[in-house]
């Protein structure tokens, strides 16, 4: 059961970045953290027991789901160390590496990148991930998570963000605070209650260094340079 945020003396928040297969990085860190918590509070200690809100984007949303999904005894379905094993076992199918691109596809990719455009296709189709999570989670819904979760997504058809949350109140509070900070008169002039917060934010590593190309340099490329 999710904790009562109004009664909490300190609000604890865990956020997990996106990054595809690099989700294994926060999973390892969470496995280590959970092992240390178990040394203090016993073998049944789980990450979800210590955070009022857990949020994640993309692969971070997958980790969030696995941390907060309940089993039949309303205990975490997965230990944090299980998530690392999940990535090791399932990543080749969830994040398959594409075949060696042909000459035409490489040129098109470079041209689109140079123009600041994308192909419009997701990097991974998600079919295997959906089938695998359905097997593991069955009919579980957001209302059943062991703590509050927030999973931001993006609707590519409507071109707008969509946020999945266990509690609409969290989203409403966020919007009200934003309006108060902007001094929107419709929301009055109430002060925002100060509450102690502990935020743990886990990344998935930095992106590779992106080499910038110039038109004069590219104009001198050979076919081999384009393939590289």
UniProtKB/TrEMBL annotation:
As annotated in the record, motif GXSXG runs over: 56-60
Q: What is its EC number?
A: 3.1.1.-
One Pfam family named in its UniProt record: Patatin
Q: Where can the motif GXGXXG be found?
A: 18-23
Q: Which UniProt keywords apply?
A: Hydrolase, Lipid degradation, Lipid metabolism
List, in alphabetical order, the Gene Ontology terms for molecular function in this entry.
Answer: monoacylglycerol lipase activity; phospholipase activity
Q: Which GO terms describe its biological process?
A: lipid catabolic process
Which EC class heads this enzyme's classification?
hydrolase
- Domain named PNPLA: residues: 14-228
SUPFAM superfamilies per record: FabD/lysophospholipase-like (SSF52151)
Q: What does this chain do?
A: Lipolytic acyl hydrolase (LAH).
* Family per record: Belongs to the patatin family.
Q: What is known of its domains?
A: The nitrogen atoms of the two glycine residues in the GGXR motif define the oxyanion hole, and stabilize the oxyanion that forms during the nucleophilic attack by the catalytic serine during substrate cleavage.
This chain's protein is named: Patatin
User: What species is given as this protein's source?
Assistant: Quercus suber
Q: What is the lineage of its organism?
A: Eukaryota, Viridiplantae, Streptophyta, Embryophyta, Tracheophyta
Q: Which gene encodes it?
A: PLP2_17
